[in-house]
Design a protein that fits this description.
Blueprint lengths: L4 E12 L2 E7 L13 E5 L10 E5 L9 E7 L5 H9 L5 E4 L16 E7 L4 H10 L7 E7 L8 H10 L3 E7 L11 E4 L3 H7 L7 E8 H14 L6 E6 L1
Parallel strand pairs: 7-8, 7-11, 8-9, 9-10, 11-12
Antiparallel strand pairs: 1-2, 1-6, 2-5, 3-4, 3-6
């Protein structure tokens, strides 16, 4: 079993009404190395047994040479883990963590297939890390399809919109399920859920594309089923489930 290590909360930022970013520092090293798409498992002081406090969160930014990692976390109603992080933890609070882990990562460069990233809510976190590291250096096309309820819930809007403006090989689509007629500069915006977006854009079967799905299990399961029904083989679909 990997050894647990102390991590210290060094920064907290409110991203949306229900989402915060937490920057965790691992003081046992000068730099934290990991692959974009990986996650940290925290041991939070909740529950009756130690395993009750284990929670895993995707790292929301590419490695930057520091010993810190950004975790983008939504507060769940009645959630013990997020209840502690939002209401009990503060700057300087210490939690235990393991080394970064997970296989929801991009293949080694150079990529040979276009990348379609389908996500909702904080499922965008690993994709942000991937794009920060690989967008400027890859020749394939990246398409981020992000779903949330309202414009106020869009995570990293300005950053992704700037990417779309700066890179011809990046398309940014946002689907809002509870808000109509929203216009966002540099963003392809639609009303509804994420599924019609990729079903329309990739209706013609292609071998040179790979779909990455991240978010709550219900959305990921439905997206996978729809892609399979469209005729895409399972080998062109990669998934990461939350909850």
């Amino acid at each position: 079993m990997p050894k647990w290590k102390p991590a210290i909360i060094r920064r907290i930022e409110q991203r949306t009404p229900t989402v915060r970013s937490f920057w965790l520092e691992l003081p046992d090293r000068e730099s934290l190395d990991y692959l974009p798409g990986q996650f940290l498992t925290l041991d939070l002081p909740i529950g009756e047994t130690r395993r009750d406090g284990w929670r895993s969160y995707s790292i929301a930014a590419a490695p930057d040479g520091s010993n810190q990692a950004e975790l983008c976390i939504v507060k769940l109603p009645g959630g013990k883990g997020t209840g502690y992080l939002f209401e009990g933890a503060d700057l300087g609070s210490e939690v235990m963590t393991k080394e970064p882990a997970g296989v929801f990562t991009l293949p080694a460069a150079p990529l040979t297939q276009d990348v379609v990233m389908i996500c909702t809510g904080t499922g965008v976190a690993p994709f942000r890390a991937m794009l920060q590291e690989r967008l400027a250096t890859e020749s394939v096309h990246f398409h981020l399809i992000f779903g949330c309820r309202t414009a106020a819930d869009i995570l990293y809007l300005d950053e992704f919109a700037a990417m779309a403006q700066a890179h011809d090989n990046f398309t940014y689509s946002v689907a809002l399920s509870r808000e109509n007629d929203v216009s966002l500069p540099g963003v392809e915006t639609s009303n509804g859920y994420v599924h019609p977006v990729y079903e329309k854009a990739y209706a013609n079967l292609r071998e040179d594309v790979k779909f990455y799905l991240c978010g709550w299990a219900v959305m990921v399961d439905e997206a996978k089923e729809r892609l399979l029904n469209m005729g895409y083989p399972a080998g062109q679909i990669v998934e990461e489930l939350y909850g």
